């Protein structure tokens, strides 16, 4: 027997002096109210009501039990209310600034369907980790080496000009003097999101190994400014294919670094909060990050 449901029926019927009216007030069929009250009487081993063809009245036993039954119903309703409030309390999640508005909106909507009211907070790599560490965010999607990451986002170089079907771009082709004076000014621009060792250092080492000048590999502070530089010149932006599509740039993988990628994982002070984020369909976060197909290894 569901004691709370039975007490709700008992309280409703006693308050209206009728099974029909009480059941309607409790939003249950009259037959259900009758069965629940009967089950409660059987459980207690005593009658709660005296019944007539037109009305019901509390017995002496029923009058003694009613206050406690009413408190139980009120407490159950309070628990349900508090649970609903807790479920809808914003769950602040630090996410990369590269997440585009539409995938981020889909993430929020999708999380709500799984009873998680996400409050995404875009931030740079170091700031995201700090937000989780200081509990300013419940959890954070942080940079991680691709081989150990939950999400892996392939990186390439994007420019304003259509490469004409070329499968890959070789950084060696940007070496000063390879293609005349214009090539001397060509740079590889890295976003703040890629200013992490497993991305930045690999690109710099590659540039050094193929003879690029140090000034040809640059970390920029603003994606907007970097995109403007690419649109106004022959510079190239290190980014994901999804980001290039959003910015209207032409993307190609890097010939010398076919495995170049951003890696992401979830961190939080609480294991429960990590599990809560990972309980979402992996593609919801994956699409925000630019993962092809949006999946993660545990999908």
- Mean pLDDT figure: 90
The termini sit apart by 39 Å
Q: What is the CA-based Rg, rounded?
A: 31 Å
CATH class of the largest domain: Alpha Beta
* Backbone structural class: alpha/beta
DSSP strand content: 15-25%
Largest beta-sheet characterization: 5 strands, mixed
H and E order:
HHHEEHEHEHEEEHEHEHEHEEHH
So what's the overall shape?
Answer: rod-shaped
In which order are the strands of the major sheet placed?
4-3-5-12-6
Low-confidence stretches: none
Helical amount: 40-55%
Stated plainly, the CATH topology of the largest domain is called D-Maltodextrin-Binding Protein, domain 2
- Number of helical runs? 12
Number of domains: 3
Instruction: Give the second-level CATH assignment, the architecture of the largest domain.
Output: 3-Layer(aba) Sandwich
Counting DSSP E segments of at least 2 residues, the number of strands comes to 12
Pfam families: HTH_1
Protein name: LysR family transcriptional regulator
Family: Belongs to the LysR transcriptional regulatory family.
Organism: Saccharothrix xinjiangensis
Write a structural description.
Helices cover 45% and strands 17% of the residues. By secondary structure, it is α/β, with parallel strands linked by helices. It has twelve helices and twelve strands. The chain has a five-stranded mixed beta sheet with strand order 4-3-5-12-6. The protein has a five-stranded mixed beta sheet with strand order 9-8-10-7-11, sandwiched between helices. The model has no long low-confidence stretch (mean pLDDT 90). It is rod-shaped and about 105 Å long. It has three domains: 3-87, Arc Repressor Mutant, subunit A; 89-145 and 264-294, D-Maltodextrin-Binding Protein, domain 2 (3-Layer(aba) Sandwich); 156-259, 3-Layer(aba) Sandwich (D-Maltodextrin-Binding Protein, domain 2), CATH 3.40.190.
């Amino acid at each position: 027997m569901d004691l709370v449901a039975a007490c709700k029926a008992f309280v409703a019927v006693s308050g209206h002096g009728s099974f029909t009216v009480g059941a309607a007030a409790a939003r249950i069929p009259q037959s259900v109210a009758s069965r629940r009250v009967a089950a409660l009487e059987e459980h207690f081993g005593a009658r709660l009501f005296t019944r007539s063809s037109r009305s019901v009245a509390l017995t002496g036993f029923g009058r003694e039990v009613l206050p406690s039954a009413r408190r139980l119903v009120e407490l159950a309703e309070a628990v349900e209310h508090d649970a609903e409030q807790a479920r809808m309390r914003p769950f602040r999640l630090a996410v990369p600034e590269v997440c585009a508005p539409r995938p981020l909106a889909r993430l929020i909507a999708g999380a709500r369907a799984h009873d998680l009211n996400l409050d995404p907070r875009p931030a740079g790599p170091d700031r995201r980790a700090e937000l989780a560490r200081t509990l300013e965010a419940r959890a954070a999607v942080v940079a991680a080496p691709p081989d150990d990451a939950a999400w892996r986002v392939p990186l390439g170089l994007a420019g304003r000009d259509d490469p004409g079907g070329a499968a890959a771009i070789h950084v060696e082709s940007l070496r000063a003097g390879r293609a005349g004076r214009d090539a001397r000014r060509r740079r590889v621009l890295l976003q703040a999101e890629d200013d992490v060792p497993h991305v930045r250092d690999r690109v710099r080492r590659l540039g050094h190994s193929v003879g690029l000048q140090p000034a040809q590999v640059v970390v920029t502070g603003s994606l907007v400014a970097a995109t403007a530089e690419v649109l106004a010149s022959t510079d190239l932006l290190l980014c994901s294919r999804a980001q290039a599509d959003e910015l209207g740039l032409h993307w190609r993988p890097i010939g010398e670094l076919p495995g170049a990628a951003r890696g992401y994982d979830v961190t939080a002070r609480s294991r429960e909060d990590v599990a809560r984020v990972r309980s979402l369909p992996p593609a919801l976060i994956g699409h925000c990050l630019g993962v092809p197909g949006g999946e993660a290894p545990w999908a």
